Amino acid sequence: MRPSLRRALTFWRRSIQARVVVSTLVLSTVVITAVGWYLLRQTRDGLLENRVDSVLAESATEVRDAEVALAGAGTESDESKQLRELAEPLITRGETRGYGVVLAGPVDDRRRAADGVASFTPGLDLDRSIPASLEARLATVGAPLAWTYTHVEADDSADIPSGPGIVVGAQIQLPADGRTYAVYFLYPLDEQEETLGLVTQGLLTAAVVLLLLVAGLAWLVTRQVVTPVRLARRVAERLAAGRLQERLRVTGEDDLARLATSFNQMASNLQRQIRQLEELSRVQRRFVSDVSHELRTPLTTVRMAGDVLHDARGRFDPGTARAAELLQTELDRFETLLADLLEISRFDAGAAVLDVEELDLGDIVRRVVESTRPLAEQRGVRVAVVDADRPCLAEGDPRRVERVVRNLLTNAIDHAEVGGRDPGVVVLLGSDENAAAVAVRDYGVGLEPGESAMVFNRFWRSDPARARTSGGTGLGLSIALEDTHLHGGWLQAWGRPRRGAQFRLTLPRHAGGSLRRSPLPLEPADAESRHADEVLR
Amino acid sequence: MSEPSSDLATHGRVLVVDDDAALAEMLSIVLRQEGFDSRTVARGDDALEAFRGYKPDVVLLDLMLPGRDGIDVCKEIRGESGVPIVMLTAKGDTVDVVVGLESGADDYVVKPFKPKELIARIRARVRRHDGPEVEQQESLTIGEVHIDVDGHVVTRGVEPIALTPLEFDLLVCLARKPWQVFTREMLLEQVWGYRHAADTRLVNVHVQRLRSKVERDAEHPEVVVTVRGVGYKAGRA
């Protein structure tokens, strides 16, 4: 499609005004054409009817006058002289009054008028001007006055113009030979034609003016309706863009004004609710911050006291020493739990912010593997990293991404089968031009059907009776999911009972970019079953 | 205010500014065990006076204080001394940390901290603060900035620039090896003395602060240059 055509089509699709104006124009044209055609027909018929009436009357008078003249002429026996005497005054009067006269006959000769013509107005083309049908109707003696429409053909020497006309035929009996002759009066319709032309022109002009008027009116009326709608659209767009203070101007009390009033009310309500939500969120954040401060200070004191006791436990009796140890480990857990809870409430309050920089997932994975080595060794699980052939670059918050990877890895180490296959945990790296991904595969108890969606729920545990080794808070994967969403990434889980599980983190290559596919499959290559479990986005 | 410990063989003197009595007392106990002399102040508006009277080697400063905000106290102390200030903050949020560091603190620990971590940081600061100086005339130049390492004097032209010891250390560290690009982790280790990567935001904030003092235009730095994706290096001499 050519661009200009596409632009025109777009304009057509987008502009109500254009559509209304064009459709009004089309409908008006149809109506005006029909009305005009009907009017013209009526005018023509009226004009012709009038003319026919007058020419018939005139012809009848002429014929009667001629018959009277013939009767008064006495007993002339030369029929050609008498014919001439009959024709001449008729032709002369015809020339002055603007019609043609043809005297033909006699009618019982069965000849065409043009052949048996006695006399006629000079310059007429008799054969074409007088229709054969009319001649036929006058062929019998005693036929009444007859008329028909014709096309008068005359050359330049004639006094009557060529063009449509009426021909009236009558019979006259010549006393000289007692035979009946036909007289034809040819009345041109040029005046009527001219009148009709004028009327047509007038009607056409009127139609064009009317159409322009209708188009202009339609344009004006739609403009009155469309302009406020366009304004409303613009204001709505600005509102949607977050400029909540934008309002429509209300003028008058018509429907559009009421639309504007309702629109403004809607905007005000929205603004108020958003303000309320913002206020709530602010209060929530404030609360989190206060709780954080209030809880942390005493915890610090307890922590330090615990440390002092722990350091001195060598001097205690075994029971008290063990108590100091338990105090220490449980304080660690309490601290982690508090930190996780605060982090979650920060996400809930929408207070979490990203410090984005360019990072290599490979570096982060190696760092996390290194830092979780003690835990892995304690569990007797070896962690293997399968590197991608190129760096896994992405833009993200290194602190958060590292936390996600650490969560996935400690989770996998925690769930890996002790003394099972080696390596017990495999970390896969992958990247393409749009995304970077890391997948953590373990060969532990795996996930029951449907559990891959639940693993990200807060405080969810696959088996409540299972021993906790790493002391996870139950919030790790929820935080990981929130961290991932903050990056616009995916965190998904795959699992099969007794075949292990795989968690895959996919991050867009550039901050704010959107993901369409991950460089790594969610279902591991060594999965025996065909179909992946539900997928969490 | 508690009386300073009478133990004379101390590693240094620590002023603790915290309104929480239990925590302050606990801090004193731990500090004494580690061989530091300490004094505690509970109100922000008493802090400056105590600082002048006590002349500590390190200040531990809580951010939320009655009387006067920790940030203001930090600015006041920084106004008259380059003494190392370690903030104690209950908020781990980036904004709070950055505001604290920008007001002049050298370092921060987030509550709840492990006592050993705090002691390690105090030691690092004290050691830096009056560590043995190199016994030779050493002077360095980056761009228009001239550094007299022994005299702890930094000048641009004839105009002296006042730097805190930490900022001074940071500048000297960069200036001694102008050919090398330092990652944030390297700077944390060499300037702050932290083995394990702490928060690299420390470096970012201190570089900003240093730039605001030594650069003609902090937006277009010529003395401390950012190497994108890696870290910082000294500008051309």
Report on this model:
The complex is a heterodimer of chains A (537) and B (237). With 537 residues, chain A is an alpha+beta fold. Chain A folds into three domains: 75-191, Beta-Lactamase, CATH 3.30.450; 255-349, Signal transduction histidine kinase, dimerisation/phosphotransfer (DHp) domain (Helix Hairpins, Orthogonal Bundle), CATH 1.10.287; 357-536, Heat Shock Protein 90, CATH 3.30.565.10. Helix content of chain A is 54%, strand content 15%. Chain A contains 13 helices and twelve strands. In chain A, strands 2-1-5-4-3 form a five-stranded antiparallel β-sheet. Chain A has a five-stranded mixed β-sheet with strand order 7-9-10-12-11. Chain B has helices spanning 21-33, 44-54, 70-80, 94-102, 115-129, 165-176, 184-192, 201-214, and strands spanning 12-17, 36-41, 58-62, 85-89, 107-110, 139-142, 145-148, 153-156, 159-161, 182-183, 224-227, 231-234. In chain B, the strands form three sheets. In chain B, strands 2-1-3-4-5 form a five-stranded parallel β-sheet, with helices on both faces. Chain B has a four-stranded antiparallel β-sheet with strand order 6-7-8-9, covered by helices on one side. In chain B, strands 10-12-11 form a three-stranded antiparallel β-sheet. At the A-B interface, α7 and α8 of A face α1 of B.
